[in-house]
């Protein structure tokens, strides 16, 4: 254990090699730098859909736009409600609010940090149009129970799969559930072009609706400015798609490494008194581990933040978990909800806890050699003991 006392070495993120270099030159030299007439975006969409077992994919500008577009295609607008986990990145709720809809936060499970299905069921009203599970850190939410809940209530399921490129549930890939899934390719995500996003779409009708809306309502072959529906410009460019094609080729092997390293790290973390790593779910049989997450239950927010500072000083890529969405000003800026923050907090005890005692490490830590993970666990053990 000669790593003790020294900062562990972690790989850089994002990663690239000659595949990205070649791809960028190829996109540059083809002479069309947007998707119309180019081949990179279309090829990426085919490859990304096939990789996830979905009939279709549509590349877009970023993950937030992907969620907005998906909600729009599912008929969400003023008067509708979208059920979202209270513990998530703000885009999940902001996308609904941007469309004039009400985002209804519900609690998550204390161990998996995924949406609590019973809490989601309790939040369904006649105005509910969509339930949006977030596959937290790449751990697929309970898709069986959620599919039943959605079907029983006649509402759509939209997967926020920003963390879950390549994840599986009972052998099924993200594109095999028959629902729209939204992805992000922002700089930190599991595959990236700096910015970018995509939808997986289960049928041609939704693909066409999404295509029109992501291209100012204009049909693919239109030459007469006959715009069909309201929309915006959410088109991804050719350079980004070229890079994403190269990133996709690397993803499966990286997911396998992260999964293996998390088995090691979570075992080590579970052995530290006071530390509880994110639980798995045997049904989520390929977990991408976008974040290596753990809790120090009962630690207050300030003590948690101080602990993170010590971890960062020791060389770990450590961060605070998401803040409960209803505890941000942004949420209330577009909220239109009747409840107060205290009332929402009252029915979201797990979110209250995880968002104040949770810590995550960047997934590049899980691409490191196992010595670095032993050193990581020792640093965390030392820092927690000193708390
Ligand atoms: C990153 C992220 C998004 C938004 O993606 P962007 O590409 O940054 O807009 C949405 N949902 C979750 C859960 C995310 O982590």
Can you walk through the features of this model?
With 387 residues, the protein is α/β, with parallel strands linked by helices. The chain has two domains: 18-246, Aspartate Aminotransferase, domain 2, CATH 3.40.640; 251-385, Alpha-Beta Complex (Aspartate Aminotransferase, domain 1). The chain is built from 13 helices and 13 strands. It has helices at 18-29, 40-52, 63-73, 91-98, 117-123, 143-153, 204-214, 238-270, 301-313, 329-333, 341-346, 349-357, 370-385, and strands at residues 56-60, 81-85, 102-106, 128-131, 156-160, 168-169, 172-173, 180-184, 197-201, 276-277, 291-295, 318-320, 358-362. The strands form three sheets. Strands 1-9-8-5-4-2-3 form a seven-stranded mixed β-sheet, sandwiched between helices. Helix 4 links the parallel strand 2 and strand 3. The two termini are 24 Å apart. The structure holds pyridoxal-5'-phosphate. Pyridoxal-5'-phosphate (PLP) binds at residues 62-64, 88-89, 91-92, 134, 160, 162-163, 184, 186, 197. Pfam families: DegT_DnrJ_EryC1 (PF01041).
Question: What is the name of the CATH superfamily of the largest domain?
Answer: Type I PLP-dependent aspartate aminotransferase-like (Major domain)
**What strand line-up does the widest sheet have?**
1-9-8-5-4-2-3
Largest sheet: 7 strands, mixed
- Residue ranges: pLDDT <50 for 5 or more in a row? none
Q: What's the overall geometry?
A: globular
Pfam families: DegT_DnrJ_EryC1 (PF01041)
Protein name: 3-amino-5-hydroxybenzoate synthase
Keywords: Pyridoxal phosphate
Family: Belongs to the DegT/DnrJ/EryC1 family.
């Amino acid at each position: 254990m000669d790593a003790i006392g020294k900062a562990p070495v972690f790989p850089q993120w994002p990663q690239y090699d000659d595949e990205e270099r070649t791809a960028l030159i190829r996109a540059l030299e083809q002479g069309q730098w947007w998707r119309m007439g180019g081949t990179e975006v279309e090829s990426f969409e085919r490859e990304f859909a096939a990789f996830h077992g979905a009939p279709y994919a549509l590349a877009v500008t970023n993950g937030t736009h992907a969620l907005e577009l998906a909600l729009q295609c599912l008929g969400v607008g003023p008067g509708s409600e979208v059920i979202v986990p209270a513990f998530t990145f703000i885009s999940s709720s902001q996308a609904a609010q941007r469309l004039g809809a009400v985002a209804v936060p519900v609690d998550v499970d204390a161990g998996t940090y995924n949406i609590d299905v019973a809490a989601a069921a309790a939040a369904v009203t006649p105005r509910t149009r969509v339930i949006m599970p977030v596959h937290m850190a790449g751990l697929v939410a309970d898709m069986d129970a959620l599919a039943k809940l959605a079907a029983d209530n006649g509402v759509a399921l939209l997967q926020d799969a920003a963390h879950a490129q390549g994840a599986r549930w009972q052998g099924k890939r993200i594109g095999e559930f028959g629902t729209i899934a939204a992805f992000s390719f922002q700089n930190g995500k599991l595959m990236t072009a700096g910015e970018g996003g995509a939808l997986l779409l289960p049928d041609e009708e939704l693909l066409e609706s999404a295509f029109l809306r992501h291209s100012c309502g204009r049909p693919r072959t239109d030459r007469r400015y006959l715009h069909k529906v309201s929309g915006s410009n959410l088109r991804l460019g050719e350079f980004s798609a070229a890079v994403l094609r190269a990133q996709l080729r690397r993803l499966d092997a990286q997911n396998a490494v992260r999964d293996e390293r998390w088995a090691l790290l979570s075992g080590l973390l579970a052995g530290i008194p006071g530390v509880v790593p994110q639980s798995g779910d045997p049904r989520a049989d390929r977990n991408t581990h976008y974040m290596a997450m753990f809790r120090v239950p009962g630690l207050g927010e300030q003590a948690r933040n101080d602990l993170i500072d010590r971890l960062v000083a020791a060389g770990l890529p450590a961060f605070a978990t998401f803040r409960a969405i209803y505890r941000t000003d942004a949420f209330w800026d577009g909220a239109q909800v009747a409840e107060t923050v205290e009332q929402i907090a009252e029915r979201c005890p797990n979110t209250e806890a995880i968002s104040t005692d949770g810590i995550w490490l960047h997934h590049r830590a899980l691409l490191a050699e196992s010595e670095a993970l032993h050193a990581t666990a020792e640093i965390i053990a030392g820092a927690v003991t000193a708390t």
